[in-house]
């Protein structure tokens, strides 16, 4: 059971998510006075919420420790898993070499740099490159683009898609002739259709969308990358409590890492 599934009023669920309580474990660790302060509610209300969370945790663990602890993994298996992970071509040979082949699945990659250096362009490039067919060295997947700044330009996406198709035909000239599906896939319109776009206008929307991603990815299992541009924009604008901001962002980071591993996809965060 997730925070969004708790049998409490909608306003309290929204306040919990906005305050950074993104899991039952985080909520259960809070005490009534602190929770009341974070949610701006009365202490008796906070106590009721915590009682419901405790009951939900007990229900979640009803199958015993094995439902939570799935066993140890030996170091050899870990190394084999890392070496077999798929990666997404960034479009730059030098950057691919630095990253060990590209942006890796099952990992969260933060891409930093001064304003204007091209972080958004790289994010768009990744949203296109993840769709390169498997026969051409790509993943043949789809992408989720979470835009917090409004910098996603569809015209530019179309241009990058055209450039990607041109490169595919240059290096794999016979691919388009192999099957009718190849002819349909190698069109800019097809690339744009496989980018799921979310426009975010506040930090509460961002928290809600990231919490919704688990359900969305469960329904769209062909998604291979989630791009957030930028992950900290609204938190820099709207947050005065630095400790709370750190806790909320840490919770979101943990959520994204879990999603990357669970759904075998890459997460790329572009900071402000």
From TrEMBL:
Residues 84-272 form the RecA family profile domain. This is DNA repair protein RAD51 homolog 3. GO terms for biological process: meiotic DNA recombinase assembly; reciprocal meiotic recombination. The keyword DNA damage applies. It is found in: Nucleus. InterPro entries: HR_Repair_Mediator, Rad51_C, RecA_ATP-bd. GO terms for cellular component: Rad51B-Rad51C-Rad51D-XRCC2 complex; Rad51C-XRCC3 complex; replication fork. Keywords: ATP-binding, DNA damage, DNA repair, Nucleotide-binding, Nucleus. The keyword DNA damage applies. Transmembrane segments: none annotated. GO terms for molecular function: ATP binding; ATP-dependent DNA damage sensor activity; crossover junction DNA endonuclease activity; four-way junction DNA binding. The lineage of its organism: Eukaryota, Viridiplantae, Streptophyta, Embryophyta, Tracheophyta.
